[in-house]
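To: structure desk
From: M.T.
Subject: fold request, one chain
Message: Could you run this one when you get a chance? Sequence is below, nothing fancy, just the single chain.
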Amino acid sequence: MSAKILALDTSTENCSVALMVNGQTYVRSEIAPRDHTKKILPMVDEVLKEAGISLNDLDALAFGRGPGSFTGVRIGIGIAQGLAFGADLPMIGISTLAAMAQGTYRVNAHTNVACAIDARMSEVYWGRFTRQDDGNWGVADSECVIPPAELVEHTQSDSLIWGHSGTGWDAYSDEFSGLALQLEKSDVLFPEAQDIAFLAQFEWENGNTVQAEEASPVYLRDKVAWKKLPGRE
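Reply: Done. Structure tokens follow.
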């Protein structure tokens, strides 16, 4: 029997919540780049009411741990921690890039996925994933922040068809044009909470949870992001 998991993500322009319970998934999702703090909790209330359960009925709370917008990732983990503390729930952090890989499979049936989120500053958050027999994802390229030109220089060709997802492809289309991979465009631009909830089931089954105070984000560009804040070194 699958775990009852609430998932949320605010790491990109997309704001999304999903509740996976009793074989059903309840979803809310909206592109709202400046309204995450206004949208996310009402979405949580809506999916809980639709499913007819409360936070205290859940087994775990999953969240998009990044990479993504520095502010967005902080908002997401802060709200997730608050909910988890209130209901005494363990937490599960899921890579937003892996979630996009799952989304690309869900939407376009790609089993090999190259994910690139526009990270600004002429860089992308990058990762490549291959779907395993059990439905989980193996890592072909570990997540990193990197200029597209470096990817083009170091990526070797193979015989696979790679579905590509994320905002980085359009943002740096010229730079990516020389990438030595066979690519097919997908319809996925952002991570979705329903895919985070799906991946969180694997982590739950393997006992990979943390207490709320131990939940941590992944920025990939920690020093640069913190230096943007006044008084930070």
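Reply (cont.): The longest strand covers residues 137-146. Let me know if you need anything else for the meeting.
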